[in-house]
Amino acid sequence: MKTMLIAALFAVPALLCAADAPTASTLEPGGLHRIAHDYYQWRQRNYPVFASDQGQHAWDDRITDYTPAAIASRRAYVRDLLATVRAADTAKWNRDDRIDWILFRAQLESAEFADRVLDREATDPGVYVGDAGNAIFSLLKKEYDAPRKRALSATARLSAMPAMLEQARQNLTRPVRLYSQLAIESARAIDPLFVDSLASLTKDLSSNERQAFVAARDAAIKAMHAYAEWLEAKLPSMQPWRPMGEENYNYMLRHILLLPMDSRDVAHLGEVELGRYRALEAMLPDPSLADPDPKRVANIPADQQAFLKAYESREAEMIRFLGEKKLITLPPYLGPFLIKQLPEAFKPTSPGGFMNPPGLYDRDDSGFYFIPTYNPASRNFYIRAAIEDPRPILGHEGIPGHFLQISIANHLQNEIRRHHGDNVFTEGWALYTEEMLLREGLYPADSAGAGQILRLSRYRSARIGVDVNLHTGRWTFEQGVKYFMEGGGLDREAAEGEAAGAATDPTQKISYITGKWQIMNVLGKYRDRKGAAFRLGQFHDDLIANGGLPLSVIEWLLLDDPSALAKATGVDLKQ
């Protein structure tokens, strides 16, 4: 079976030159959807860890092939497919087909840009640590199969890691010091994931299977530690982090995110919103309410388990409020949203934890929010905020935020749209819901919850300045850290984590305020159009019925206005 899978993997690029494959001159809507479907299938086979993470478990015993031949093959496939899609003549297609073409093109643009500009395999050691960690994490997070079956998959993946990490050393011809420092931290924190977490799967292994598992696990941990030591020894000679430059950054904004803005527009938006939220904090009767303080809480959780329960206890309250106010409709397929502890390996680049939604292919509709390790004495903003009032972060990550929206996106019938997770809309929606719930009365005026929401919007406004100015080359990394502290009001630990996240994931940090601003624009226009028939809850339902599409696309769908999308893409959409 493995031999057949490998043969199929390398056969996929031939799809582009097959006799019946559509060319740019013959591509029609049906053909677009066929090649998109082939691309999604190809991506699963080429990125088996990604497939597992998304709930497709056919290749759970494999990790990504990082040999030069495999990397070159993947890049050629994406490059050739993008050329075909770019050159298609869609002037006579209807609105929905043109939208699908633009969306699929943006998906390919993202992959091609990562290959051509970011070149992570050669510059970022964290690619390999992340793949190793997610290779195991994706087998653990849901009970999609018997523990023994998942343990055998883990053994196969662990066995492949030493060779993968050795290949990484050869691929990393231009490692970046900042990326390497983050990779070292993650590599040295991976033992609990491989040892403690995996132990829950091994109880039904036979004696021989257990021996094979232990040998593979220990070899993988040894190789990971050696990789960290190798990176550390090379740190002095590594190149410093460098910005991608304004031209590349603007390319991402227009062609990948489909934003009708350039870097200076986005930076200006961040400045305006930062000034606004700093002023709103100052207007609080007690401005210190915006800085979370566990000492103001009557009952501080005693330990990690109590901390988790405190999070979960507020979820039912928020769902009940949404229903009573008729602010959004929860679909019947919505699964449970669970709170779990953040694995140590993910701390360096996710100091505040992260949300893990249902995967594209999951049969299980549940989702998780991974919160940081509990420490009531921590200065970490996210931990302090969660102790004092977890609802703002819980609503952002869960319901009505990410978990709800992504669950809806996963149930879209259109495959291209189902696969399009626009980060600006996703983060913008989650941030929008924070202030929407404040204005609708969930939090008492001048409460700690209300103050926290102002601070959350404040530092997300600061994120824009750091992201844009780092990647366009206007600021150094240390300037970004200081801006988070002085402008965003964050402690140094949180600020350093935020700046590291901005440097490693360009445009991610602009998503929150930019997306919220776009939503507010659409809301105002929608209200004007509906007049007396306007209802806020109906707007919310209509908005996120589109899953995770870019808001420039949604503006065309909801308001029949293609101008923002035309400005972003440079495509004449009035024909």
General description of the model:
With 575 residues, the chain is an all-alpha fold. The protein folds into two domains: 2-237, no CATH class; 247-513, no CATH class. Helices cover 62% and strands 2% of the residues. It has helices at 2-11, 29-46, 48-53, 68-86, 95-118, 120-123, 126-140, 147-171, 177-188, 191-199, 207-234, 246-256, 263-282, 304-313, 315-324, 381-388, 391-397, 402-409, 415-418, 423-439, 448-471, 477-486, 492-504, 511-530, 536-544, 551-559, 563-569; strands at 337-341, 354-356, 367-371. The chain has a three-stranded mixed β-sheet with strand order 1-3-2. α7 runs parallel beside α10, α8 packs parallel to α11 (207-234) and α21 crosses α24 (511-530). The longest helix is centred in the middle third of the chain and has 28 residues, at 207-234. It is globular and about 70 Å long. It starts with a helix and ends in a 6-residue tail after the last helix. Mean pLDDT is 91; it is low at 1-20.
The spatial strand order of the largest sheet comes to 1-3-2
The number of E-state strands comes to 3
Secondary-structure element string: HHHHHHHHHHHHHHHEEEHHHHHHHHHHHH
Distance between the termini: 50 Å
| Outline | globular
Q: How many strands, what sense, and barrel or not for the largest sheet?
A: 3 strands, mixed
Mean pLDDT across all amino acids? 91
Percent helix, as a range, is 55-70%
The computed structural class is: mainly alpha
> What is the gyration radius calculated from CA atoms?
24 Å
Number of domains: 2
What are the low-pLDDT stretches, counting only 5+ consecutive residues below 50?
1-20
Percentage of residues in DSSP E strands: under 5%
In DSSP terms, counting alpha (H) and pi (I) runs of 4 or more, how many helices?
Answer: 27
